[in-house]
Amino acid sequence: MCEANAYLVETDSKSGESNEILLMEAVDKVEPDEDGILLISIFGEQKFIKGHIHSLSLVDHKVYIKQ
Amino acid sequence: MCEANAYLVETDSKSGESNEILLMEAVDKVEPDEDGILLISIFGEQKFIKGHIHSLSLVDHKVYIKQ
Question: Which residue range forms the structural domain that includes residue B27?
């Protein structure tokens, strides 16, 4: 199965370091709209996140979202 | 490996039917910016596509892009 984990990427304004906060595991569907992104897991769990897709790293099973 | 195929989704304005046009196989990285989306395959091939991410279906290994 090729589900991914979705992470929120936050950049510390002082240090410039990036943190990854796990939003949802086992994400199957990702559906962006104007206000944010709907994440749907392989179990049917849904989560709506304000933000946009920053990048995908599919071989690493990672979806990065930024606010 | 969990690379995906990237498709351009086109909707026929007359019939309303959607067509999927294969843009790139074996996509690893997807990096949206203001003007479009950079696709990078597992082989290092790069392709820049004007458009935005319409949706992802990760279990089906599909990235849908719309212009």
Answer: 4-66
CA–CA gap between residue A29 and residue A52 (Å, rounded): 15
- Total domains, chain A: 1
The interface pTM score, or ipTM, of the predicted complex is 0.91
Q: Which mean pLDDT values do the consecutive 10-residue runs of chain B (67 residues) have?
A: 93 89 98 96 98 97 97
Q: Does A30 touch chain B (CB under 8 A)?
A: yes
Q: What is the 3-state secondary structure (H, E, C) of chain B?
A: CCCEEEEEEEECCCCCCEEEEEEEEEEEEEEECCCEEEEEECCCCEEEEECEEEEEECCCCEEEEEC
Phi-psi region of A26 (alpha: psi -120 to 50; beta: other; left: phi over 0): left
> Which residue in the set B29, B52, B53 is minimally distant from A57, CB to CB?
B29
> pTM to 2 decimals?
0.92
Interchain proximity A28–B1, CB inside 8 Å: no
